[in-house]
Amino acid sequence: MRKLLIVEDNAGIRQSVIDYFRFKKDFVEGADSVEDALELLKKNDFDVVVTDLNLRDKSGMELIKILKGSGKNGEIIVITGVSSIDVAIEAIKSGAYQYLMKPFKLEELEIFVEKAYEKLGLQKEVKNLKEKLLDRYNFENIIFASSEMETIISKIKQIAPTDANVLLTGESGTGKEVIARTIHYNSQRRDGPLIPINCSALPETLLESELFGHEKGAFTGAVSSKKGKFELAAGGTLFLDEIGELSLFTQVKLLRFLESKEITPVGSTEVKKIDTRIVFATNKDLIKLIEEGKFREDFYYRIKVVQIDIPALRDRPADIYPLANFFMIDYSRKYQKPLFTFSKETVKLMNEYAWPGNIRELKNLIEHIVVFNNGGAIEPGMLPDYIAGIAKPRRGNGNGKGISADVPLSEIERQAVIANLKKYNNNHTKAAQALGISRATLINKIKSYNIEEEKI
Predict the structure, then answer these.
(1) Three-class SS state of 170
(2) pTM of the shown model
């Protein structure tokens, strides 16, 4: 039940307000002085306090300051007969939510009270969400069983409380964003924002504006000023994914920020000091890009203050079953489906499969299984052919139907790509989703493996 406190020394006005909101089914109490109000506040946590400024013992302004100084979350609405903008400003500065002049209509007060309740509701939602995120990215809730991930978690525990720049490397789908979020929510910046941005998802012409913001009229279409991601992430963490796709020009701009902690929005001469930590991530070989002249060496050494290499899922098979089980429970709850188990043969097949899409591919597979599951154990026949086939003693024939268990991992990956291209009639978007990789990554793999789509 919503709780409302009315502090008013005019008995007639006080009782009218109390009766009006009690009729609305709110829990309402009344007081005619600051002293009485404080006594009632000791007994109840009121959501909203409506107070006059001129009370019989003290000023309502004093009550506002006491309430805000106590750390209570309730909102305060001021009512007064003093027609002065200075008084209104002082009340708002002291922490009041709204200001209403006497005489007022009860319907007007109700609108302010309802908006105050809405604001409190949003604050509670944000708080609950933040608590869930903190719990989700608590070290104890990170799913792993491998020694490789144990080493990585140990590193994160050491670097999270610092402001050091972090470079996360690893194949697409290995969990780089989860690691970035874990770093943020276990840092001193956890109460600040975490802003992720995929550098490959935006064209170069928009990336600078997206990162650093722009002024009105800076370019065609800039009809108003806009804050960039750096400014939005102030006091928190900016997660820059796919930095291997950055142009040399943008790398220079980022290098300047790392050295000065300053940005200049597009079309502006104003230099802004920004307190933002950056976590970088890439699935590219940055050393190779440096040799090819596509990545600045000085920028590379500036961002790799701490570098964490996240191994592919195939290189840490001990994590496969715990992750699969976690996803199974999570999706079973989401879709209200019965829980199930994995047979020993199924676990063996999953451990032997190369997982070219890494954790993302495993997650997508388990979601698919959950959707069609009606209980019982998951047997090998319920797995896709390209997974179940790797344990079958037959040679690959280039059509993605099955390969032997002792072929190179690159061939396993190639066969998985071919199988999904064939299944989805060369639809890159659907094939990439099934593999748990991005469309751009799929296209790169098609090129690197010289797969001729017209022959599939």
Answers:
(1) coil
(2) 0.66
